[in-house]
Amino acid sequence: MAGKNRFSVSDRFEYLQGLVTEFQDTDSEDAARPFSANLANFAYNPSNIEALRLLQVNELFLDMLTEENENFVEFGIG
User: Fold this and answer.
1) Dihedral sign for Cα atoms in the order 19, 22, 27, 30
2) What tens digit of pLDDT does each residue of 27-75 get?
3) DSSP label at 68?
């Protein structure tokens, strides 16, 4: 697996924490969309499960289900 760029566990957690913070702090749905999309993409990788659990991203996705923005609902369902 040489040549593959992999996050260390602490780097991964810090990066995901930054995505969560940016998503929660933004006032614009347009600005929040890329952060929620990135979180959804990271959720597909099993190596991110523990960090996502610690950051309570599952709660964030559940909260998205009540949004009026269809993209957020889609990410929450995914």
Assistant:
1) negative
2) 888 888 888 888 888 888 898 999 999 999 989 888 888 888 887 788 7
3) S
Amino acid at 2: A
pTM here is 0.75
- Residue 16, burial from CB neighbour count under 10 angstroms (0-12, 13-18, 19+): buried
Are the C-beta atoms of 77 and 65 separated by less than 8 Å?
yes
Tokens in use for 48?
A: 């991110």
Residues 6+ apart with CB under 8 A from 36: 23, 64, 71, 72, 75
Residue 3 has pLDDT above 60, yes or no: no
Inter-residue contact 58 to 52 (CB < 8 Å): yes
